[in-house]
Every structure is written in structure tokens, then in C-alpha cells.
């Protein structure tokens, strides 16, 4: 549900959380992005950082400059801007992935689980190639970045996307770095070796988090993904993986990033068409 008015939650004496709803929906995330854009274009004195998430915007502030009550009052004046956003700046990042890679398979079996892609194919009544085709045929909207540097969550922009995945009953103790994963219909990413419970889809040879950094794409910071961008995942094979990984390690890989915009109304029209077809 999208709330008629946002709910403002105090997170101690340094943060305010502006919550726009209680579900995963692109229209809801657009409101988060809308308020975030407003604060970027017209900063409020004392606001030090913003963190967009699926359904809320966390705002950090300096209480020696602005009090929480004054901040909330100023934010209320911008609610209409957030709800009116229909087209947002959105770069398109194309990323290569080796779907059904051997590292994912080894990880699953080490934790007593079957090959995750074969499992997803079985429970979704399709084949492994069908899972790959469905996942790579749609663009993905990044709703939030966090939990770990470079970790993100993304929603499918094809309203007809139907592949769904349960989480592991018991989280894994480790997951290889640079692994793409799925839970429900949310795609996420493991930037570093870490525990986790999402189903493993594949591995990319490129870095989305690089503290070194080795590539100019990280000149503004070590984390590549940003909320409000779109991803396109391109299937590659073993040879493609090895070739691209060598380029990344040399520091001369060229990331495929295209600046652009995305229309919420276009998405909602396609969503309506899919729902009418199902009905």
C-alpha cells in the first residue's frame, strides 16, 4: 500500500526516516527517489546524507544546525514534489554474467543445497535456459543500495516477469564475491564473500565495489550501483568471463553505462496491460 501521506519516524537524534508505504512497488520507490532528488537539487541546511531504500528515505542531519521538528516541517512542504515525479534520471548499466557458473554450484552443494538454477527451473516449471532468458530479457530497477558496499536490490521492469525464488531455509555461511542472486522477484548482489540466503544465479567478472580503485568508473567512490538506475544482464560463457576478468584486473575494462531517463507512467501502462490480460 502507498500511504496517502508519508510517515516520519525518528531514528535517534541524527536521523529521520520518511516512509512512503509498506510494499515493493515501482510507484512507491519513485516517491523515495523524488524526495531524494529534491534534496539533491535544493539542499536543506543541516542535512548531511540521504539513503534511499525500497519504500523509505533515511535522512541524516546535524542537530546543531537544524532541529528534527524543523527538518520534518520542511520535508512536509516537499511531499507533493515526491508524489508528482513521473520521469526520473536513470542511467542504464549493462553487466555481463556467467549464469549457472561453477562457483555458485560449488557454494550451493557445500551448504547441502541443489544447483540453484536447476532448482529454480523445477519450481517455476521451466528449464535453466528458460530462467536465464527470463532474467536477462528484462531491465532491473535498483531500489536501494546498502547492507554491504555495492550490495543492492532491484525490481524487474517487465511486469510479466514470473520467475520467483524462495530464500534458503538456513542461510549460507559464505557466498563467493560478485554473485548475482534472486529471492522472491528481487535481484540482489554479493559484492564480497559473505553469508546469505538468496538463490544463486551467476557470477560477473566485473567489480561493482572496488576500494582500490583500479578503474576510472570508481573515481567518485568505491561503489558503482546507485538507487534509481537500471541494470541489463547479459549472459556470457566461460571464455567471455575469463577475458573480461583479465581486462578488469588490468584496469582497462570499459563499463557499459548509458545516461537516460525512465518513465513511471510507461511502466504503469504496461502493468495495467498485463493485469488486464491475466484477468
Q: Largest sheet, order of strands side by side?
A: 6-11-9-10-8-7-12
Percent helix range: 25-40%
> What is the name of the CATH superfamily of the largest domain?
Cyclophilin-like
Rg value? 20 Å
Largest sheet descriptor: 7 strands, mixed, barrel
**Straight-line N-to-C gap:** 21 Å
Beta-strand percent range: 25-35%
The CATH topology of the largest domain comes to Cyclophilin
- What number is the mean pLDDT? 95
Q: Could you characterize what this model shows?
A:
- With 279 residues, the protein is α+β, with helices and mostly antiparallel strands.
- The chain has two domains: 2-85, Gyrase A, domain 2; 92-278, Cyclophilin-like (Cyclophilin).
- It contains eight helices and 14 strands.
- It has a seven-stranded mixed β-barrel, surrounded by four helices.
- It is globular.
Describe the secondary structure blueprint for this structure.
Layout: E1 2-11, E2 15-21, H1 26-41, E3 47-52, E4 56-61, H2 68-76, H3 79-84, E5 87-89, E6 92-99, H4 102-110, H5 116-123, H6 128-136, E7 140-145, E8 152-156, E9 179-183, E10 186-190, E11 199-203, E12 230-235, H7 238-250, E13 256-258, E14 261-263, H8 264-278
Parallel strand pairs: 6-12
Antiparallel strand pairs: 1-2, 2-4, 3-4, 5-14, 6-11, 6-13, 7-8, 7-12, 8-10, 9-10, 9-11
Helix pairs in contact: 5-6
Summary keywords:
single chain, 279 residues, alpha+beta, Gyrase A, domain 2, Cyclophilin, 2 domains, 7-stranded mixed barrel, 30% helix, 28% strand
